[in-house]
Amino acid sequence: MLLRQFQRWPIGEQLLLPEATWRLIKAERLVKSTTFGDLQRRFASSRGLNATPDEKALLLAMRIGRVVRSAARHLPWECACLAQALAARAMLRRRGLATRLHIGVARLDSTEDALASHAWLTLGDQIITGAEGHERFKEIVCF
Fold first, then answer.
1. Mean pLDDT comparison of 34-38, 43-47, 98-102, 105-109, highest-scoring range
2. How far from the centroid of its chain's Cα atoms is residue 84's Cα?
3. Positive or negative torsion for Cα 95, 124, 19, 10
4. How buried is residue 3: exposed, middle or buried, by Cβ count under 10 Å (0-12/13-18/19+)?
């Protein structure tokens, strides 16, 4: 079943799948072994990047986002939004595109102090990964 779906993908997306899978595995390991402070220091040098991408760059970014999200759904573990954003960011950076990684928080329940977090990646004004539900979260940091 999965093989048939994969074979229907455009060849450009098929060629991106191995890299997306590898980047997701690396990103998941980074997320599980690193503190938020370490991530903040690691990406601090990226602050201020906000290039306006052309149409070709946006199409590539959207293609990479689709492949990363699809690969994440088919891994044998749940691949969090932060790992997906980091994987797509690495793939786009490799292609010379400057992205922004947004991290936000939201209350789980209005009667409790528990917080949920969410990460999404943008290129220009376009959300590449993490679009679903991002509007519920208040952005606390952007790299």
1. 98-102
2. 4
3. negative
4. exposed
CA-only gyration radius of the chain, Å: 15
The answer to whether residues 119 and 82 touch, using CB atoms and an 8 Å cutoff, is yes
Instruction: Read off the pLDDT of residues 21-42 as tens digits, 9 standing for 90 and up.
Output: 999 999 999 988 988 788 777 7
pLDDT digits (tens, 9 = 90+) for 64-102: 999 999 999 989 889 999 999 999 999 999 999 999 999
Count the domains in the chain: 1
**Does pTM surpass 0.70?**
yes
Rounded to an integer, what distance in angstroms lies between the CA atom of residue 136 and that of residue 43?
24
Domain span including residue 34: 10-142
Closest CA to 103 of 89, 91, 121: 121
For residue 88, tell me if it sits in a domain. Answer: yes
**Using CA atoms, how far apart are residues 53 and 97, in angstroms rounded to an integer?**
8
Contact 130, 120 (CB under 8 A): yes
